Amino acid sequence: MVDIPRIDDLAPLEKSKDVTDCLRIIERPSWLFLKGKTNSSCRVVSTLLHGNEPSGIIAVLRLIKEGFVPAVDTWVLIASVQTALTDPIFSHRMLRTNPDLNRCFGKNLGQADDAVHMLAQAIVKDIEEFKPQAVADVHNTSGEGPGFCVAPSDSPYLNKIECFSNLFCQTMVLTDIHLGALMEHDFGGPIITVECGGNKANESHFLAYHGIKNFLSLSSLEQMPKANKFTTYRHPLRLEMQQDYYLNYASEYQLGSDLTLKHKIEQLNFGTTQPNKNLGWLGSEGLKGLKAIDNEGNDQVEKYFYNKNGELHAKQPLHLFMVTTNLEIAVSDCLFYFCEV
Hints:
With 341 residues, this protein is an alpha/beta fold. The chain folds into two domains: 6-233, Aminopeptidase (3-Layer(aba) Sandwich); 236-340, no CATH class. The protein contains nine helices and 19 strands. It has helices at 11-14, 19-26, 55-65, 81-85, 115-130, 158-166, 202-217, 301-304, 327-332, and strands at residues 6-7, 30-34, 38-47, 72-78, 135-139, 148-152, 171-175, 191-195, 231-234, 237-241, 247-250, 259-262, 272-273, 280-282, 290-291, 305-308, 311-314, 318-321, 336-340. Helix 3 packs across helix 7.
């Protein structure tokens, strides 16, 4: 297991020119300590588990430069520092030779002894030592679209999750999918994943800043305001490509592709996708190149999608989210999440 440095002298970060300079000062996965107005308890904010998701560290650096003092002691994780700094900066989810850090927690914790799995073990060990009241794991979506929060549907803290999420935005997804994400751990309090929106959008950076500041300003989590006009989506599935099938994005079918998704498909994020909407074009093997595995291990592709004269269509109205046009992420992770309307 690795030891993650703990940085309590934030003066060099206050003087950094920008977030890239800040990361170069930090150099490696680190904990930043923000001394609170009281040390009676603490909270944790996790950022940059993926190297192409900068909104969390951008928000934290802004708070540091403003001289913000949290209500209670706070530990901020800056995880994939070198991945983020690898050219082009903030464009790599993880390095090609490495596993996805946010798939090394939960059921996958300790399943391998490479550096990334060992980092995941160290993160969990440290958070357990901190005994936080709550944990906010801040990400960006893999495609463009509005921000939302995610929490496990089996969380023992569901009575607090909605109000917690409402500190960041007004949309939440409750999932029973277990992929090995940080939020799958029970650290003794509520934990949410915050998907701030696209990684280049100023709105995403503001959502992270506003939400983290809200979270850290509360003197007590019992003061979390009740959520109003809050939307919750439940039991999503993931539409994925089968291994060795070929994906493309374009405005028309691409010869040789097993699936060509529409190049503007990100516009469907969090809307209602009707059965008459063409999502893209299927190759000669139709739906065989796709899968949507439920919790029991059953493939539900044909329950929710069908081949309409070579086009991919939903069989019923669906909410789509985390829709991406990033080919590498779509193939290595998923095309999008979806749930019933």
